[in-house]
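Thread amino acids onto this structure.
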């Protein structure tokens, strides 16, 4: 599991992984602003929301560099309380700047399509550094969550159509399609993996 010492490395991997992601583009349509904002955004969300919950997994290469990150929220922990969100604002607002309304709109849609049943792990983000893609690091993180929590289901929102088949190979099934707000109105795929036992 990741610790506070891994914060910067995890944020860098996720920022690189999501630089061209449709969900992030719905928040920051301008690519230059998105690229500049993502490291601070992921640093803030990891620090305030995900690392304290203890569900951030990492994979490291032979040189012990973090090259893949899975951001899991434990059962019942995916919905952030207002107090925690308020404490995160000093770090989030500089990253979002004038895109705060867009981020709130995206978040509301994601929340509206999140399963109400709390008995699941939520995969908020899964990313691999470009230099390490195709080497099985993300797949290992997906398998590890299934192995270490076989009695819990898992939920994710797939943000790119070509990744739907990837998650299906790992036991997830599409339960719903929906669109995000914004000019591009990108399609998202809610996906669910049943508990093994």
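Threaded sequence (197 positions):
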């Amino acid at each position: 599991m990741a610790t506070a010492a891994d914060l910067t490395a995890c944020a860098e991997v996720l920022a690189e992984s999501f630089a061209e992601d449709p969900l992030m583009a719905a928040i920051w349509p301008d690519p230059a602003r998105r690229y500049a904002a993502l490291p601070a955004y992921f640093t803030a969300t990891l620090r305030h929301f995900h690392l304290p919950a203890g569900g951030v997994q990492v994979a490291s290469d032979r040189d012990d560099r973090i090259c893949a990150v899975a951001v899991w929220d434990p059962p019942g922990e995916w919905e952030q309380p207002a107090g925690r969100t308020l404490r995160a604002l000093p770090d989030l607002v500089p990253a979002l700047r004038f895109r705060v309304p867009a981020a709130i709109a995206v978040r509301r849609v994601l929340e509206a399509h999140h399963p109400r049943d709390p008995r699941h792990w939520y995969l908020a983000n899964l990313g691999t550094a470009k230099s390490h893609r195709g080497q099985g690091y993300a797949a290992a993180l997906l398998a590890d969550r299934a192995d270490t929590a076989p009695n819990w289901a898992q939920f994710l929102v797939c943000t790119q159509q070509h990744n739907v088949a990837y998650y299906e190979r790992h036991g997830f099934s599409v339960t719903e399609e929906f669109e995000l707000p914004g000019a591009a109105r990108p399609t998202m795929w809610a996906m669910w993996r049943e508990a093994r036992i």
